[in-house]
Structures are given as structure tokens and as C-alpha cells.
Input
Amino acid sequence: MGLNIRLGFKTKIISVLAVLLILVFGTTIVIIGVKIRNNLTQQAQASLKTNINILSSTIKEWDRNTLSILRQTAHSFEKMSLNDTGQVKQVLEFTNDNMNSADMYVAFEDGRIIKLQGNEPTGYDPRIRSWYQNAKAAMDVSISKPYIDAYTKKSLLPILWP
Output
């Protein structure tokens, strides 16, 4: 049983035109899809670049403000008796409020610590902590690696000044 279909000239022309039209539409759709994808990719990259620049500038501004506040705090400490716990806490509270931080404390070379929130754990010696050693080695305001706080068991980003 064979199919023996005979198409007329007009039918053949219409069939060829239909196939060509399908190929043209298909190619057009692919080209439009590629252009749309490229355009969306470029827009997404431009948007990400803008967001990165905004975030970077915000972080730089935060960093400048934080360093300025900490340097001013260090300067305040230089002018006062660090044995006056009440006065040290007042300076820490003022600094803490201006930095909008969760907590703030000062550790001394004799192992004392003055802290705003909570009490230090038994046997806690700040001098053996990496953040203390980093601050002492840096001799300037610096940022240390994040660590888990011995007081709160929360992750902290230490901003230090010697």
C-alpha cells in the first residue's frame, strides 16, 4: 500500500512558502529571544553594579564613621581615669548609642573588663583572646575576624582600638 499523492504546482508553491514562513518565524522568534535575554542580562548587570556601588559606598561611610567614633572614644579615655568604672561606662554607653551596637566593652592590660551588657564568665581573661591581642598588635583602630562571644554565645564583629 503506497501513498501516491500528486500535488499541483500551486500546492507545491504554497507548501514551500509555508515551510519558509515557518522557518522565518522560528528564526525571528529565536533572534528576538536572544536579544531579550541579552538585554535582560545587561540590565541585571547594570543594576547589580549600581547596587554594589551603593552598598560599597554605604559600607565605606559606616567604616569612616565607626573609626571616627572609636578614635574619639579612645581620646576620651586618654583624658580620664580608667579606674572610674562609672565614667568609663558613661563613655561606653554614649559610644554604644552612637554606633547602634549590641554591646561594648573595654579590656585592660591587668585583665579587668568593663562591659555594658551582662557579666563576664568566670575565669574570663581578655588578654588571651585573639581580638585583644590583635588590637594590641595593631596599635590603631582595626576590625578583627568575627568570633563567637564568650558572654552571649552570639557571633560578633570586633572593632578594636588599643
About this structure: The longest strand covers residues 105-107. The chain has a mean pLDDT of 85. The two ends are 98 Å apart (CA to CA).
